[in-house]
């Protein structure tokens, strides 16, 4: 059951009454109650109409309905592809898209993989310049690649443990690419 539907029933309102009170069309309210995301002007108007804060209303799934097993699978799906840039992002994204598991945790997982791919690419591209800077005979590109892959594997496994124990990612960004 969507949060909007739960609040509407709690306040004993019909869809038509809520539409009139909020200035949002009945069809939009029906789509939101069926699972469409609630955001922007619609979120503000409905939260004001119901006199509840946006955080309480924002999100269509209750915390109990988040599929942790599927989210762990999404997280672990990057693991076989940590050495292949973009595939470690596309596989989890494809699972999220086809399973329609859009939530904060999946956005954190994919955003972290995007960020890590960008940082890894930059560091790998800079490693030959580090050789010249330090006048080193040892090629740094391969050791840097191996170290970055091991760090990414660690991030994925640590987040899997966090999802398993506390239903949250231990390692996450303070911003999102999605």
TrEMBL record:
UniProt keyword annotation of Transmembrane helix present: yes
Subcellular location, principal: membrane
Residue ranges of every copy of the HTH cro/C1-type domain listed in the record: 4-57
SMART domains documented for this protein: HTH_XRE (SM00530)
Spans traversing the lipid bilayer: 79-98, 110-130, 142-163
Keywords: Membrane, Transmembrane, Transmembrane helix
Domain of life per record: Bacteria
Sample GO molecular function, one term: DNA binding
Membrane topology: Multi-pass membrane protein
Pfam families per the UniProt record, alphabetical: HTH_3, MamF_MmsF
Location of the protein in the cell: Membrane
InterPro entries: Cro/C1-type_HTH (IPR001387), Lambda_DNA-bd_dom_sf (IPR010982), MamF_MmsF (IPR019109)
Record-given protein name: Putative transcriptional regulator, XRE family
Species, as recorded: Tenacibaculum jejuense
